[in-house]
Amino acid sequence: MRILILGPQGSGKGTQAKLIAKLHDVPHVATGDILRGAVAEGSELGQRVQPILERGDLVPDDLMVDLIRERLEDEHGFVLDGFPRTVPQAEALDAMLLEIEKPLDVVLLLEVSDDVAVDRLLQRGAEEHRPDDEPEAIRNRLRLYHGLTEPVVERYRSGGMLVSVDGEQTVDEVFGAIEDALKQVRPMGSDPLGSDPERVQSA
Ligand code: ADP
User: Fold this and answer.
1) Is residue 133 within 6 Å of ligand 1 at its C-beta?
2) 1: which DSSP letter?
């Protein structure tokens, strides 16, 4: 299974991606977690991205593309969360997956309103003290989502790969809807490496 999960900050992407990864035994590749890990380690990458993350700005595309290429190179399956966030990142991802002949099976979109997103992020900020869950950084992140990431959503929608899920339901309901969508794409028990490209493409 190669799954891309899209949606605004606070849509529950991370929560759902972890559940999918566990059930389907594929790695959860979350760029935010990778970057926060680098910051915690104090590595060169971490030092470079720390102020960017705190403002809620985006890390430069070239850096993200290199990071993802390295991370996905040897994986057959994955749930990708947090990348691509811009059209150039999406173009790079599509080219990369084409080159290694590992196309995406499905692109999931978790839809929530800005009001719900902001409420959830403020609550997480209070609980987890994430520096970018402060009101100003939250506004910035949602503004960047609407401006730069929504065109990525439209790109996959027009490619016919997108399945939208209502992200304002409970965690279990959202996960149920995702599982229903995944069954349509790849029925349980079929070849996990996708040796039947015709069926995958027509799904
Ligand atoms: P959220 O989606 O709630 O903003 P993430 O954990 O996915 O949280 O990302 C946290 C931060 O990491 C982003 O605000 C951004 O600074 C950086 N980041 C993550 N993924 C990318 C990406 N694909 N391109 C640029 N920056 C990214």
Assistant:
1) no
2) -
